[in-house]
Amino acid sequence: MKILITGVAGFIGSNYLKHHLKNNPKDLIIGIDKLTYAGNLKNIENESKNNNFIFIKEDICNQNSIQEIIEKYDIEKIINFAAESHVDNSIESPQIFTKTNVLGTQILLDSAKKIWYDSKKNTWKTNTKFIQISTDEVYGSLELNEKPFTENNLIDPHSPYSASKAAADMIVKSYYDTYKMPINITRCSNNFGPNQHEEKLIPKVIKNAINKKPIPVYGDGKQIRDWLYVEDHCKAIEMVLKNAKSGQIYNIGDQTEKTNIELIKTIINYLNKKDSNIDTDLIQYVKDRPGHDKRYAINSNKIKKDLNWQSSKNFDKNLYKTIDSYIKQYNI
């Protein structure tokens, strides 16, 4: 199998690269990344020594280059991790989110279509597939008494980030509806694990706590998120890649709901055992984010039933493993 992974030097993309090469050593993977502030070649340093992995610095908005890569390497599968993903940044600079997340996705689709689709026969090249990696945030917010979102719920994004991802999802779906392009869309809950950029909640809390800096908490800290270990996410993506029927959308979540303040205190308490100077006094409540969604939660029964996926269901163990990886990274 010949696979194009976009956003390969980012958090989830780099973790998926490691996972796929480990479990499918004969596959050829072409990885591209624009290498913005969130992309780090150190994330794929070991994989770059693998003869079955080729890295190319490229922007998914560069259609000529993308099309050339698909054709040159006879790409059969595309997994689109490339995205601007930090909500705060989308509030400050929404245009770049629209360009990368919406236009970039459309360019990838169009580039693949030019190579994979025979318009005269109205057929697609055998064994091709495009997977769009999306987010549970496209569904919008839930109240405490509401059931987790299923794939049948309407999308209702509230931030420029989630709106851009929702728009990309709809474009991907339109290529299936219009051209019968072989696609899947996955919508995951909040990921955590090694190599995540420090702008995200868990690494930010760990780094600030280690350095005895204030830990900012939006509003009352009672916003609820469903957390998913990145390796569990990678296993699910591989199953979708290999076994999912074309046109299907899959939620990927662990049903591990935590308030932000609960999660932050769990991290602090773990670090306190290693350094007694790290305590909850570091917590600093700040003005809430505009349009901050109260609760995200998704129902993953469909992927469990269709593809037999199961999460590791060990949040605490995976969280502590993640914290230890950052302790090692920060040399304490």
TrEMBL record:
Q: For this UniProt record, give its keywords in alphabetical order, as a comma-separated list.
A: Lyase, NAD
Which Gene3D superfamilies does the annotation name?
Answer: NAD(P)-binding Rossmann-like Domain, UDP-galactose 4-epimerase, domain 1
Reactions it catalyzes: dTDP-alpha-D-glucose = dTDP-4-dehydro-6-deoxy-alpha-D-glucose + H2O
- Family annotation (Pfam families): GDP_Man_Dehyd
**EC number of the protein:** 4.2.1.46
Which metal ions or organic cofactors does this protein require, according to UniProt?
A: NAD(+)
Describe the location of the NAD(P)-binding domain by residue ranges: 4-319
Q: Which GO terms describe its biological process?
A: nucleotide-sugar metabolic process
Kindly give the PANTHER family that the UniProt entry links to this protein.
DTDP-D-GLUCOSE 4,6-DEHYDRATASE-RELATED (PTHR43000)
Family, as annotated: Belongs to the NAD(P)-dependent epimerase/dehydratase family. dTDP-glucose dehydratase subfamily.
Q: What is this protein called?
A: dTDP-glucose 4,6-dehydratase
